[in-house]
Amino acid sequence: MAEKQETGIGGLQAFLADRGYYVLGVFLFLAVWQAASTLKLFGNDFSEAFSPVAAFLALIEMAKNGDIVHHAIPSLRRVLVSLVLAIVFALPVGVLVGYFKSLEKLTYVPFQFMRMISPLAWMPIAIIMFGVGDVSVTFLLWLVAIWPLILNTVHGAGRVSPLWLNMARTMGAGDKGILSKIIIPAAIPDMLTGLRLAVGVSWIILVPAEMLGVPDGLGYFILDTRDRFRYDQLMATIFIIGLIGYLLDSANRWLISRFAWKI
Amino acid sequence: MESNDRGQKTLLELRDVSKVFKKDGRDFPVLKGINLSIREGEFVSILGPTGCGKSVTLQIVAGLIDQTTGSVVLDGKEEHGPGPHKGMVFQEYALLPWRSVVENVEIGLELKGLGKKERRKIAREQLATVGLEGTENQEVHEISVGMRQRVAIARALANHPKILLMDEPFEALDALTKEEMQIQILNVWEKTGTTILFVTHDVDEAIFLSDRICVMDINPGRVKKMLVDQLPRPRHECMSRTDKEFNDMRDEIIALYSSLKDEELDLII
Predict the structure, then answer these.
(1) H/E element, A248
(2) For residue A203, which of A243, A234, A233, A236 has the smallest C-alpha distance?
(3) Is B47 in contact with B213 (CB distance < 8 Å)?
(4) What 3 state SS string does A9-67 have?
(5) Is residue B241, in this structure, part of any structural domain at all?
(6) Is residue B32 part of a domain?
(7) What are phi and psi for residue A165, nearest 5 degrees?
(8) Interface test with B, best of A171, A182, A256, A262 (most B CBs within 10 A)
(9) Distance to chain A for B6, nearest Cα, Å
(10) Which residues in chain B have their CB less than 8 angstroms from residue A164's CB?
(11) Environment class of residue B19 by beta-carbon count within 10 Å: exposed (0-12), middle (13-18) or buried (19+)?
């Protein structure tokens, strides 16, 4: 019995030694949030509504009345659809550009130029092309997601060791074999890094993109809570945006640890 | 005379092969008039200092570099380009880090379009040939450098090549592992009966392994002398280095190079 208890305590100690700072970080974050609210950093009028306690209560309310699901699902759908379309477009482009040095030089200036433009700058053009709604939002998200995917894939496909290519040739590989057995697998870690960056930047751009006239989504709901003076719900929505973003990034980190080869 | 008794048929022939590299509009002759003929089942080493073009010669045979003039004939057919019938073992192993040991051995069979079951069977056999049973599912970064080179040998053998081309394969290994690998490659050679063309700048290594040694000269690279290595087989680690025949042969090779300038001599003596 006594031994078992000891291992239990040892387990907790080991857990805290390993994760203690992470747990502490969460509590410090909540403490700063609460302090900002108590010290009325957001102004005198609605400081109470900005507190973590108020946000937590609003969160429960929104979970019960379905607001969270109603707005999180369309947001996730838009991000996922645009990501899939971005992957389908960006990975082949990245592999080709990375493999053929002349293509890389040809596209270098246009790509580096384009990637620095916020997709929101294209918003009027997107609305002219696709009208107000889902398609425009998806297009803008696609436009922001392709650059990290393309540029990382280019990097990955470009740094394939010439030794591997020579080896594959002596094994009888033609262009198709070299592409499928060497270049694509060699570029997978960089593709996954590109995906992680693309997910991060898509999720960030999602909120302003959803303020452009769609009837649902977390970005829309931010404006909605403002219009209804429900600042507790606003904070709860901000919290949810952060939480989903964190979970998406964690999923990407898992993908990287699972599928990125190590030397 | 010949210590090799596996066959008298000529397998590989280099006919007047030369190579000129162009740099900044100037010609740099790397190889000049290489003639070399290797019989089936023979173990031939190409020995020479850095810069003599021995690796270039091997890569021309492998089809990775085109010769400027001359021809390479394998099994009666003129060779153009690389292929799985010429198994190449690189100094840097060239293993694919995203594949397990057995998957690395399978790559040639995969490219050939063999089914998974058959691939796995052949790959396991070849891993056994190089003494690596039980390592199939290990990752490349988990195994020692000596084992990595054995995986690379198994990978080349899996294609059942007509000839095994080895480009300073044991150069990156420590002295002890190197000796172990020399024994290992002789075992593989005995077991499989494959023909081996082996590039090295290590005199002892060439003497220990070969039936014949093609001693190369520098500037431009050319064949200086073809030596027959009459050390009895099978060979063991303890016979080398101290053996009289071994020492005589080493002296003969060193004497061939005594006309070279000191700075051109980076042979390991």
Answers:
(1) helix A231-259
(2) A243
(3) yes
(4) HHHHHHHHHHHHHHHHHHHHHHHHHHHHHHCCCCCCCCCHHHCHHHHHHHHHHHHHHCH
(5) yes
(6) yes
(7) -65, -45
(8) A171
(9) 26
(10) 94, 96
(11) buried
Q: Give, in order, the Cα–Cα distances in Å from B24 to each of A180, B27, B51, B65, B69.
A: 36, 8, 19, 19, 21
CA distance B214 to A98: 41
CATH 3.40.50.300 fits A60-259, yes or no: no
Going residue by residue through chain A (263 aa), what tens digit of pLDDT does each one get?
A: 444 444 556 677 877 777 888 989 999 999 998 888 888 876 776 667 888 999 999 999 999 999 999 999 999 999 999 999 999 999 999 999 998 889 999 999 999 999 999 999 999 999 999 999 999 999 999 999 999 999 999 999 998 999 999 999 999 999 999 999 999 999 999 999 999 999 999 999 999 999 988 999 999 999 999 999 898 999 999 999 999 999 999 999 999 999 888 76
Task: Please judge whether B141 and A262 are an interchain contact, meaning their C-beta atoms are less than 8 angstroms apart.
Answer: yes
Sole residue written with tokens 């053009």: A125
Tokens for B203?
Answer: 């005199």
User: What global pTM score does this model have?
Assistant: 0.83
Nearest CA in chain A to B84: A171
Instruction: Compute the CA torsion angle A232, A237, A240, A244 (nearest 10 deg).
Output: -170
Q: Where are the domains of chain A?
A: 2-39, 60-259
Please tell me the distance in Å from A31's CA to the nearest CA on chain B.
45
Best to test chain A binding among B98, B159, B165 (most A CBs inside 10 Å): B98
How close B99 comes to chain A (CA, Å)?
8
Residue B30 lies in a domain: yes
Give the Cα separation of A24 and B143 in Å (integer): 40
Q: Which domain holds residue B254?
A: 1-85+199-269
Task: Annotate B103-121 with DSSP letters as a single string.
Answer: HHHHHHHHHHT--HHHHHH
B108: distance to nearest CA of chain A, Å?
5
Mutant choice from B110, B111, B138, B168 vs A, greatest count of A C-beta within 10 A: B111
Q: Which residues pair with B87 in a beta bridge?
A: B164
Residues B118, B124, B125, B127, CA torsion sign: positive
User: Which of A169, A261, A263 is nearest residue B82 as measured by Cβ atoms?
Assistant: A169
Closest chain B residue to A161 measured between Cα atoms?
B94
DSSP B264: G
Under 8 Å between Cβ of B130 and B150? yes
> Distance (Å, rounded) from C-alpha A241 to C-alpha A220?
12
- Say how many domains are in chain B: 1
Burial bucket for residue B142 (CB in 10 Å: 0-12, 13-18, 19+): exposed
**Closest Cβ opposite residue B97 in set A177, A181, A261:** A261
Measure the CA–CA gap between A178 and A159, rounded to whole angstroms: 14
Closest CA to B148 of B173, B179, B176, B111: B173
CA atoms within 13 A of residue A255's CA, in its CB half-sphere:
17
Q: Which of B42, B7, B74, B89 is nearest to B196 (CA)?
A: B42
